[in-house]
Amino acid sequence: MNAEWKRRNFLFRSMVGVGGMALMDALNAATPVNPLAPRKPHHAAKAKSVIFLTMLGGVSQMDTFDPKPALEKFDNTTLDWTNEKRTDQPELYTKPRLILKSPWKFAKHGQCGMDVSELFPHLATCVDDLAFVKTITGENGNHPAATFLMNTGLVLPGRPSVGSWVTFGLGTLNQNLPGFVVLPDFRALPFSGSQQWGPGFLPASYQGTMMQWKGEPIQDLKPHGNLPEKDMQDQMALLREYNHSYLDGNFTNPDLQGRIDAYELAYRMQTEVPSVLNLAKENEATRKMYGLDEETTRSFGTRCLMARQLVEKGVRFVQLYTPSQSWDSHTDILKGHAKNAKEVDLPIAGLIQDLKQRGLLDSTLIVWMGEFGRTPDHPADLRDKAGRDHNTKAMTMFFAGGGVKPGVTVGATDDLAWKAVDQVYRMRDVHSTILHLMGLNDMRLSHYHAGRQMRLTDTGGDVIRGVVA
Hints:
Elements: H1 3-29, E1 49-54, H2 69-73, E2 97-99, E3 106-109, E4 114-117, E5 130-133, H3 143-152, H4 162-170, E6 180-183, E7 209-210, H5 229-248, H6 254-276, H7 284-289, H8 295-312, E8 317-321, H9 333-357, E9 364-369, E10 373-374, E11 377-379, E12 390-391, E13 397-401, E14 408-410, E15 412-413, E16 420-422, H10 427-437, E17 447-449, E18 452-454
Parallel strand pairs: 1-8, 1-9, 5-14, 6-7, 6-8
Antiparallel strand pairs: 2-11, 3-4, 5-13, 9-13, 10-12, 15-16, 17-18
Helix pairs in contact: 5-6, 8-9
């Protein structure tokens, strides 16, 4: 190696070393940034918060909001599948299959004249506030994969959930409550549990916080004993000093900062959560509106009321779940869908009515959907207890509230509600629409991971303009 190269190599290494030390000093000296502090949106937001009503199992579109007279006409006749070679459930199509008419009657409701089945008598009164999309398509007819797609934009686990992305982009409005809250049905949690509301490769602070509708919303949140508030504050101040001192020497560990933030948030929640989630303060009319006085509707109704209380206090994203596979009516759809609809119909209508009368509907985006739709036919040997199988080619969903054009219907399916044929949308388009209404551009909302900029919508989605006011 010649002298000139040695000299240049020495200067290069020296400058990199000096620059690196300066950068480390700057990072170590910096005050830790609150990851949930409110942040400006990319554009003017239509909504401040989201309530995501997740109907696990796959709701039948032709039995709820997409009636098809052809099903009645061709009931009990064979549906020819010879041209449909691609399916996620090939074993279901090796036997004869018969078209199944809907067991429920439909009627038009509201000024918009939306068709709603007998399953949803209470939601039928709210259709002028809803925007329906009948042409959502999926990528996988397997429950776990389809649920991951609905929540994270990918059929495989490990990606951030939509609630995590929203709080990552916007922070939250109340620093004493989590930015992202999950209200599951503990009769059957979603496939993979907390991975469905996990932060993936985003910082740990964007993990969804699970709350219960019975008993204490968060277990072990209350401190033991009767320690005076001043002593508790002193303890937290000392712990914060130790934590930040340790973090200064380990600032490259994002999970460490996330754990510190979680402990400090838990301390603040000790006083905030009981005052926010206090159902006893609600009057009898409100409790009845959500169905809290009926056993069938009490679970979902309580969680809908909790969702309203949380967004009212500044929580950014609240997600409710029905039990895993509850809508999965391969057999006896008459019994299965009737049971599930009865559990959620009154509470959802109550939520919409309550938000509206409190002036919160305009700032709260409601999303109602499952992971896929259902087929117009069923195996012939199950005629006595007929149901419907998984269908990724068409699904109905609805939006309501913040920034949504009320009383509209977007898209159309074929004569059997089997395939989306007009204005077809994917799950990434649903996500793009949610982000857009919250003031976020899905292509700008990104996080560098594994050598590339990652997004909820990957290479981008199309905003469903027909539902945007």
